[in-house]
Design goal:
This protein is mostly beta strands and 353 residues long. Helices cover 10% and strands 60% of the residues. The protein has two domains: 158 residues, no CATH class; 190 residues, Porin. A hairpin with a 6-residue loop joins strand 16 and strand 17.
Length: 353
Amino acid sequence: MTIFKTDSSQIKTSGIFIYENDLIKNIRFENSNSNLDNITKVVIEDKSYLVKDYGWGRYLFLQISSGELSLYKSKSNYYLENSKFGLKEIAKKEYLNYPVFKSGVVSLFINNCKLAVNKLEQNATNLTLRNLKNIIKIYNSCNLESEIQIADEAIEKSMAPIEKIEFGVSLGLMNLNTDYNNIIDISATNTILTSVGAKLYFHSNMLDENLDFNISVDYFMKNKQKINNLDYTLYSETQLTKLMLGTNYLFNNLNTNIKPYIGISGGIILNSNSSIFLTSNSNSLTYTNYTTNNELCYNINAGAVFNILNQKIDFLIEYQPKLDMSILKSSSLNTENNSYNITGISFRLTYVF
């Protein structure tokens, strides 16, 4: 290491840093310790550590960026410094050993550079070290004679909880297409199911703010059908409950009041309350009863979140690809497995609290 002293002299020697919590307090040499009172800088393999007054003491900080606004690092924390505010620690969270910073302190340091403020607003919920260094670079090339621009939006976002959870209640309609060809020779039928449900939304600042995750449960009210051909009549009762886990990608940059999205979800259809009964038209004593089963499924989604008078409304269009629904056939003659197919499109409105 090379030590630069206050009298402009330099010493090349070997030593190790002595830490006080997270901060470098002293340097230990082979036979002695040195405090930092007469040292201005230490250079180790092209890395510069500058002595700074912080709190009640003097400490060494690794210099990452320099200029009108400088960025420093202690053992694990990061600091900003300029002539107006001095040296301030930047609040952060650690995700997989990578820091993601809150932007409140940063916004105060850069409030007289509009370009830097705009960049911070774009990255307020994803302020990684790389993004922070880019903002500092923009600030240090900025014309600081311009009018002060306080990043209120960035401060508000940065002070928000890292995880945001929202709850909504839903109403919907499903156009369900059912193909009973494995059971009876007849064309596919359509029926409308009405649903009520609830939905939890999870928004995470540690990830891209365009992504959200959700858990939903929707209960589809009972619907009865009667269909027949020349030989048989089929009676069905459909009553479903869907439990789904999904993720959506929101196009946040298109409009502040309308946020379109696309997504996918997977889960289970609880179908055990549905039933199918098949009887012969020529002999009412000849019949077959089918017991329905639960099935795993996936859906493809598209929709938009509307902000109306500070209230969120989520409009969802959900496509159910062709799904084979297994059933158990029970009759006086035998018992065997069978199936029928469903596809469907759902339209759902969710009021988000």
